[in-house]
């Protein structure tokens, strides 16, 4: 290995280390979702992915996820049993006001589809996808308001509890790697991250893609 390549690898590992140490929290963790392979946290993560895919700040999506939980709307049954106005009010308390009426409708319809097609249990959707990430994305997009971005966010967040779909670094997260001057191949990024969970790696890169301050923070610390 040449000195320039060795120095480049050292620099990349330092940047990755700072990124993970300071910005490696997943969005699910930020929303106080203790993610595991059980129905309720998986559903809450799906709703969070739905909210994060809207044209609204990530911090607002996270606070709205918490507000829905506090309102008791934490599984498909409770979501569909709530009135439309109850869903609107919970979204508003989280700050998700710009799209609250449409999102309230989508969450109600999506909860009903989950119950009708998969018994309200996303693990059945996982079984149907049978390890095929593209099929998983297709199934997720059957839910109102969960487009390609929302499906990618969900997959990014759950990849450590559904390991057959990881490591997964979506195109938006790769933009974060580019901003940091890091490699653009998922395998290279995983190597730089050492033993860090894949979901934390992808979330940290996503934060770099969304916030120039994250990039500046990491680069200044290794300058």
Structure, described:
The protein has 223 residues and is mainly α. It has two domains: 3-28 and 168-222, no CATH class; 32-165, Orthogonal Bundle (Endonuclease III, domain 1). The protein has 14 helices and no strands. Helix 3 packs antiparallel against helix 4 (58-70) and helix 3 (39-52) crosses helix 10 (148-158). The protein is globular. The model has no long low-confidence stretch (mean pLDDT 93).
Summarize the structure.
The protein is an all-alpha fold and about 220 residues long.
| Terminal Cα span | 22 Å
Tell me the domain tally.
2
What's the helix-strand series?
A: HHHHHHHHHHHHHH
- Tell the overall outline: globular
Radius of gyration: 18 Å
SSE diagram, text form:
Blueprint: H1 3-23, H2 27-30, H3 39-52, H4 58-70, H5 76-81, H6 84-93, H7 100-118, H8 122-129, H9 133-140, H10 148-158, H11 171-179, H12 186-192, H13 198-210, H14 212-222
Helix pairs in contact: 1-14, 3-4, 3-10, 4-6, 6-7, 8-9, 9-10, 11-13, 13-14
